[in-house]
Give the backbone structure.
Amino acid sequence: MHQVPVGASDPAALELLRTELEDDGIVTEVIRPAAIIPESAARAIVRELESRSPAHGGVWTTTTRVWNRYQAPGVDELGQPTAPLVGRMEVAYGTPTRYEITIYRATLTSVGTAAGWTVESLCDEPLAFGGLRLATCPRASLRPPPKPFRFGGQRPTPG
């Protein structure tokens, strides 16, 4: 379950928490291996998402951690989206290289699942701005974990 700090005012986080507490319509999928958006596509996607914010008649809000998709455009007097949250994508900017973006988790609310959204369709909408789809997006290479450290039978001497 997501934890929201006391005094948090992120409407999307609060909507996600409300959805988790009130019903079981939430769907979260960890993207494995994580999807990597190459530099040229990342720039195009971020530019398009920023121009499609609810304040500009769009349905996306973005930060360097989360991209939120709302059901309809519109903001209140404080500039917060007024429509229900459809879902969110958790992203990391600057990884694995400085200008790439990694998508590692996607979550749909009950509003999103009721409207027929899937994790793939949620991810495909912004990825299309960069000419990508989740199914064909480059993926992070998974490396095996390192071997456990062992002293090889010798103990260090106290000095």
About this structure: The two ends are 48 Å apart (CA to CA). The chain has one domain: 11-136. Residues 1-7 have pLDDT under 50 and may be disordered. The beta strands are 27-37, 60-62, 66-70, 85-93, 101-108.
